[in-house]
């Protein structure tokens, strides 16, 4: 099984020599992202039946987050980590591994293994922490001015997204399909939303909407390959449009 813990790869001497700007965005993010929590939750995707995996989950999660922050493809993010000290520090890559750093295909394989559930783990943990740190302004994070006239996120939107998951859940059960998202996490978010008396609805809406955005492509494929009549598919296609 893959390790569900990790060690810091850089000594204080290395940091003082190579990381000269403590206000750099990646330096700050590295300090506040809950790496251990992410690594522990991602480790559940590896077991004895699936064999061993050589690379650290701390490195992989750092690469995935970095690729999103810098909008880099797999090849580019791997190459730039080899060349950039701040990228190495953020991803926790030691000097001795640079010469034999991972091949871009490893990221593709890991992404396939993690799937939607793994991506949601990373997104939820990173977003929640940045939200609490004040890096993300929840008043604007979900607003599209071409759609809404004012910066308002209605609480009922959270319920609508949750109901969408419930409908997909019923669809999966009716057609004997395995769920392609972690429904227990969705229910936990919904339960917390209802119990939180001082809730900021946009935070919960962001989490559920992010999960829905990841789940819909799989739902679309399941509908497309469902062996039934066009008449029975019509309500499902209407649901997808909504």
Q: What is this structure's SSE topology?
A:
Layout lengths: L11 H7 L6 H8 L2 H8 L14 H14 L3 H10 L1 H7 L12 H30 L21 H20 L8 H13 L5 H24 L5 H12 L1
Helix pairs in contact: 2-6, 3-7, 4-5, 5-6, 5-7, 7-10, 8-9, 8-10, 9-10, 10-11
What does this protein structure show overall?
- This protein is mainly alpha-helical.
- Helix content is 63%, strand content 0%.
- It has two domains: 12-114, no CATH class; 137-241.
- α4 packs across α5 (74-83), α8 packs antiparallel against α9 (183-195) and α9 packs antiparallel against α10.
- The model is unreliable at 138-155 (pLDDT under 50).
Question: What labels would you give this structure?
Answer:
242 residues, 2 domains, mainly alpha
């Amino acid at each position: 099984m893959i390790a569900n813990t990790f060690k810091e790869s850089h000594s204080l001497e290395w940091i003082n020599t190579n990381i000269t700007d403590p206000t750099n965005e990646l330096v700050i993010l590295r300090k506040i992202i809950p790496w251990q929590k992410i690594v522990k939750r991602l480790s559940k995707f590896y077991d004895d039946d699936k064999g061993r995996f050589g690379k650290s989950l701390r490195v992989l999660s750092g690469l995935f987050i970095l690729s999103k922050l810098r909008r880099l493809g797999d090849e580019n993010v791997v190459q730039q980590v080899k060349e950039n000290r701040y990228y190495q520090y953020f991803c926790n890559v030691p000097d001795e591994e640079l010469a034999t750093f991972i091949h871009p295909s490893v990221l593709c394989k890991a992404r396939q293994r993690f799937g939607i559930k793994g991506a949601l783990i990373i997104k939820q943990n990173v977003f929640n922490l940045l939200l609490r740190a004040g890096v993300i302004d929840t008043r604007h994070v979900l607003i599209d001015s071409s759609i809404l006239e004012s910066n308002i996120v209605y609480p009922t939107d959270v319920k609508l997204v949750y109901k969408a998951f419930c409908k997909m859940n019923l669809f999966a059960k009716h057609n004997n399909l395995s769920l392609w998202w972690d429904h227990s996490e969705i229910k936990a978010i919904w339960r917390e939303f209802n119990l939180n008396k001082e809730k900021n609805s946009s935070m919960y809406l962001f989490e559920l909407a992010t999960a829905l955005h990841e789940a819909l492509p799989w739902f679309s494929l399941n509908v497309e390959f469902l062996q039934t009549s066009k008449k029975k598919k019509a309500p499902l296609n209407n649901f997808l449009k909504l």
